[in-house]
Structure of Large-conductance mechanosensitive channel:
Amino acid sequence: MLQEFKKFAMKGNVLDLAIGVIIGTAFGKIVTSLVNDLIMPILGIFIGGVDFTNLSYSPPFGESVILYGQFIQTVFDFLIVAFSIFLFVQFMNKRIRKKEEEETTPEPPEKDAKEELLIEIRDLLQKQQQNSLDITKRNHES
């Protein structure tokens, strides 16, 4: 059973997940600091210096306190984290798509001298045919 667990734990997906969780936790701390130390104070200035974390309501009965400000702060933290992750994923998907397009877009083959000459002859014949049609059309009109 220990061998099975070791085999499971050492699979690539489990290690990738563990690394993702660790990086996500560190990223979450950065975003929380961004929200608490930069965004919320600036937002507080614009809305009159209100600090969301201190907002509360004490009902007239009982001694309980409803800390709705902390809830607002937590929701705001979540929205900032979710938006940051969305932007990061969007950025990475754009890079991946661009790289895939570069790899899949084949360069047009270079034309050799024979092909260039044949293309030139074709264009001249089309032009000549169009000129003769125009002359025939004018003769029928007059």
Notes: Residues 22 and 76 are 22 Å apart (CA to CA). The chain has four helices and no strands. The radius of gyration is 34 Å. The mean pLDDT is 80.
